[in-house]
């Protein structure tokens, strides 16, 4: 793109220019575009990102046109060769993008005509930019889903490895951010895994509905040429062909679904991020984040800030916002294509970039996370996290649960008075609290025993966590 075209303030050039002979639609117009309007309506600044898909789509379209007898094989070959050469220029960054040519589609078509001459003008037979752009965006999102799925799977495997490593590491589990019951660190990490594995399912599911070919829909009503949509679909690897031409050019629900899956993934990453920030603080000191993922303060020498998870947490807002943009963009749009849809690209692109960056950041960070086991154990021992198990013990010895609850409450009060934990109470203390309490109570109050006792599918016992990790590996592969 000639940068000048983009940076000159519209006010300096908003008078009518010479009729824009280079505009593909110039035939219908006698006046030319107001320079501000030209910039206002142009999308090339951002949709040039779609050039690989646009060129691939055009090559498939030209190939289909020749197979259908609409182009000669020689015309097809000239077009395909020209498009391949344009791709080389785009890849090298030497392609001259022009705002006057509005969007990626017209820039490439214009370059094709310049390169191969009149025959280039035949490429757009039986096609409209409306089915073209819908095809480009679907191809783009399909590729991006595959990339993101790879990055997500890397993070999932990192979480499994961390969970396995810390399968027997005891920590307090929280409700209301208050120490509730002892759990294992591995079990906590596997909760993150479950959230993100569902996100993978959602992304895969969105990909299935992205993978549908719009080309052939034309501007909205199809085409009178004898096109072969099955062939175009096959050439581009689409799993299905859009059944209705109006729907094919107009709906962006596939982009909304992608962004919705992405927004939920960001919500999950933000939950992980929040816990990492908390745990990395001096107050918790549950984990130590590698220096590579932190920065210092320009003023306070002691600081080591958890920037990476903070940024992931903060970037969640962008993707949630993009989802709102796309939903609102689509709302109440009449059939078929409307220019509103040009506004789909920036939210979609930023969603892709944000997800890719955040998945990569966490994929890199998770394997380097240092877990401070002694701190975690001390935190699990404090805060009376074994009180529920103590009450369950009394119930097993015949005490009704309501009474047991009251006895344990009294024990906790006594321990607070003595400034100790429940295991700091003596056998005499226990006997005074309730005569059924025997010496084995000390084993009941041991956090290792407490977690080991949660020995069922979905439970926090170390051997359950290890078994869950083995299943998790299998599920990632599925
Ligand atoms: N740049 C347009 C978009 O992103 C391409 C389709 C334009 N179609 C049209 N009839 N003006 O949606």
Walk me through what this model shows:
The chain has helices at 3-7, 35-41, 44-47, 51-67, 73-92, 104-116, 129-165, 185-210, 229-236, 245-250, 253-280, 307-330, 345-365, 373-381, 387-396, 401-418, 427-433, 441-444, 447-453, 462-477; strands spanning 170-175, 178-184, 212-213, 240-241, 287-288, 370-371. By secondary structure, it is mostly helical. A two-stranded antiparallel ribbon has the order 1-2. It has a two-stranded parallel ribbon with strand order 3-4. Strands 5-6 form a two-stranded antiparallel ribbon. The chain is elongated, with a radius of gyration of 31 Å. The structure holds arginine. Arginine is lined by residues 43, 47, 103, 129-130, 133, 337, 339, 341-342. The site of arginine has 10 residues, from helix 7.
């Amino acid at each position: 793109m000639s940068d000048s075209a983009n940076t000159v303030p519209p006010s300096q050039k908003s008078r009518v220019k010479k009729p824009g002979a280079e505009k593909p639609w110039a035939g219908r117009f006698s006046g030319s575009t107001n320079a501000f309007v030209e910039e206002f309506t142009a999308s090339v600044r951002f949709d040039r990102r779609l050039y690989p898909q646009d060129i691939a789509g055009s090559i498939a379209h030209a190939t289909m046109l020749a197979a259908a007898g609409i182009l000669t094989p020689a015309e097809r070959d000239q077009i395909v060769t020209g498009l391949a050469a344009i791709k080389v220029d785009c890849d090298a960054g030497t392609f001259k993008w022009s705002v006057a040519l509005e969007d990626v589609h017209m820039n490439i078509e214009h370059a094709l005509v310049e390169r191969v001459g009149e025959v280039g003008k035949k490429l757009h037979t039986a096609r409209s930019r409306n089915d073209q752009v819908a095809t480009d965006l679907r191809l783009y999102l399909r590729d991006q889903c595959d990339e993101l799925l790879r990055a997500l799977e890397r993070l999932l495997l990192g979480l499994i490895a961390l969970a396995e490593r810390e399968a027997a590491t005891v920590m307090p589990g929280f409700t209301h951010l208050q120490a509730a019951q002892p759990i294992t660190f591995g079990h906590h990490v596997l909760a993150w895994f479950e959230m993100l594995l569902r996100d993978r399912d959602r992304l895969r599911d969105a990909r299935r509905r992205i993978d549908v070919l719009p080309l052939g829909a034309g501007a909205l009503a199809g085409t009178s040429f004898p096109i072969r949509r099955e062939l175009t679909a096959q050439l581009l690897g689409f799993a299905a062909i859009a059944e209705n031409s109006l729907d094919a050019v107009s709906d962006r629900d596939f982009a909304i679904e992608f962004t919705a899956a992405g927004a939920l993934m960001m919500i999950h990453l933000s939950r992980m991020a929040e816990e990492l920030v908390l745990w990395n603080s001096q107050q918790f000191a549950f984990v130590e984040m590698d220096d590579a993922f932190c920065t210092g303060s320009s003023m306070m020498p002691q600081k080591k800030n958890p920037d990476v998870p903070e940024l992931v947490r903060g970037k969640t807002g962008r993707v949630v916002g993009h989802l709102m943009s796309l939903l609102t963009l689509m709302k109440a749009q009449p059939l078929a294509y409307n220019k509103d849809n040009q506004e789909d690209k920036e939210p979609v692109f930023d969603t892709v970039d944000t997800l890719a960056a955040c998945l990569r950041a966490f994929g890199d960070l998770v394997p380097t996370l240092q877990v401070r086991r002694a701190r975690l154990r001390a935190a699990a021992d404090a805060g009376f996290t074994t009180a529920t198990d103590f009450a369950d013990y009394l119930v097993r010895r015949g005490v009704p649960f309501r009474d047991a609850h009251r006895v344990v409450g009294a024990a906790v009060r006594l321990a607070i008075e003595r400034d100790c934990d429940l295991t700091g109470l003596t056998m005499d203390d226990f006997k005074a609290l309730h005569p059924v309490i025997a010496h084995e109570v000390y084993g009941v109050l041991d956090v290792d025993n407490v977690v080991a006792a949660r020995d069922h599918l979905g439970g926090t016992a170390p051997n359950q966590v290890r078994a869950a990790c083995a299943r998790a590996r299998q599920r990632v592969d599925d």
